[in-house]
Amino acid sequence: MGAMGGTGRPDRHAPIGTGVRWDTAVGAAAASAFKTSAFKTDAQRAQPMAAAASERPVQIRVRLFGALAALCAQRSLNVELPGGSTLASLLAVLTRHYDPSFLIHIVDSGGAKRRHCRLFVSGSAVEDLQTRLYATTDPTEIDIILLIAPEGG
């Protein structure tokens, strides 16, 4: 059992078992090699997966809600884009499909998303139109909601 701290609880930093540190038993070179190869950050582990996912086409199911659904005849649309495409590139495809005025409702003249438009990618709210879309096993669900302000003051 590990050493007891002054509180009567086991000291979580005390050696367990034989009291010999593993890195001194296997040598510094082996310990260093183990640390650098076995413990990768989430970003390092995600790099090969993201690269593979960015090469495959992205299947997307777009659903329109709110005032935008009333403006477009088709409320749901399936789209395929190259892997690593952005939300902005999806909006360009939707604009070509629906009507040039489609984009005016979502993006302002400076290219920023309008405050009264909400974008959700797989259920998560997204503000940045440069957010990349990657292939998954199921189609990526993108919901676009156009809110309208009630009249009056």
Which descriptors apply to this entry?
single chain; 33% helix; 153 residues; 5 strands; 2 domains
Point out poorly predicted stretches: 33-40
Overall morphology: globular
CATH third-tier fold name of the largest domain: Ubiquitin-like (UB roll)
How far is the N terminus from the C terminus? 70 Å
Radius of gyration computed on alpha carbons: 26 Å
The first-level CATH class name of the largest domain? Alpha Beta
Based on the structure given, which CATH architecture of the largest domain is correct? Roll
Pattern of helices and strands: HHHEHEHHEEE
Q: In what order do the strands lie side by side in the largest sheet? A: 2-1-5-3-4
| Number of distinct beta strands | 5
Number of helices: 6
Task: Write a structural description.
The chain has about 150 residues and is α+β, with helices and mostly antiparallel strands. The chain has two domains: about 20-55, no CATH class; about 55-145, Beta-grasp domain (Ubiquitin-like (UB roll), Roll). It contains six helices and five strands; from the N terminus they run αααβαβααβββ. It has a five-stranded mixed sheet with strand order 2-1-5-3-4. A hairpin with a 2-residue loop joins strand 3 (about 115-120) and strand 4. The longest helix has 14 residues, at about 40-55. The chain is globular and about 40 Å long. It starts with about 20 loop residues before the first helix and ends in a 7-residue tail after the last strand. About 10% of the residues are buried. The model is unreliable at about 35-40 (pLDDT under 50).
